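Reviewer comment 2.1 asked that we show a complete input and output for one of the modelled complexes. We chose the pyridoxal-5'-phosphate case, as it is the one discussed in the main text.
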Amino acid sequence: MAPYSPPTSGRAGKLRLDFNENTVGCSPRVIELLTQKLNAETLTIYPEYEATRAALAEYFQLPESQFLLSNGTDEAIQVLVNTYVDDGDEVIILHPSYAMYRFYSEVAGARIVSLDYRPADLSFPVDELLAAITPRTRAILISNPNNPTGTAIGVGPIVQILERAPHAAVLLDEAYYEFCGITGLRLIEQYPNLFVSRTFSKAFGMAALRVGCLFSQPDNIRYAHKAQSPYSVNLLAAIAVRAAVEDTRFLNHYVEQALAARGDLYAGFTSRGIHAYPSQANFVLFRAGERAISVRDGLRDRGVLVRDRSYEIAGCVRVTAGTPAQVERFFAALDEVWS
Ligand SMILES: Cc1ncc(COP(=O)(O)O)c(C=O)c1O
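Response of the prediction step:
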């Protein structure tokens, strides 16, 4: 299998529109609490999660028995796959989508069934997915909204998938939920085959800390927990989450800005005659055609980072929607490199 090597170095100080992170930083309350708690004793003691779990239960309005804390969504995916998928089991993933679904499924020795997003509009292939479910399907891994296409499915098709695959673990990775508002979280009471993940890496602006959550019915969570190491989330991350979920004003304000920026991206692409795919996340995929690599490089030379995706969707580049001012800076640089 190919190693996953994200191009992550030398990004600080640039306009980072390449990883769908929060582009203004996390809530100041996170920094305050971390500063207050950062001392030798805190660092000496193995992490204790009670206060964090209570804060998360309150924030997500779910009992503590229905989630586990994870080292980013990545660990949530890994734990789910390690718990439910054995060598040779069938796992359905979509293409293009978040690379770690394939990565962990390959590590587990799964037989991967890959379905393409529909080429015309990069919409989710619901009928094709329903048709691909077999008695051997052990897991279905879905990003909703999807990275890098930005497209999402509603609760109706999610329910169809859950009902067609009662024997499979269905993951809805909701890393971009805050920008979209569609969620399967309230379905977990009803569907024992549903797992939902959330992250603090995107809207909350804490990608470096590596925190996420995996939600499901209590029996599943107990089972999945067995496949997790006991201290995979470090204490500073656990402390940070407590402050982050309290500062909903900060979160909502950032999401508002990102949605305005997304609107500005569409307006800017349209006025320049550049095709952009409809996105429900904090990023937009646009068609640069044969210019894709030179646009990425030209923008980087001007201090603006975007992500080339042309290796998986011909001619496409992905740009994060941060703030309207950042969109202006992006287009000013794009206009210099486009022709
Ligand atoms: C769909 C999706 N899921 C998960 C992640 C990673 O999340 P985390 O930082 O919580 O591991 C990403 C990051 O780009 C993503 O796009």
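The chain has two domains: 15-25+249-338, 28-246. We note this here for comparison with the apo prediction described in Section 3.2.
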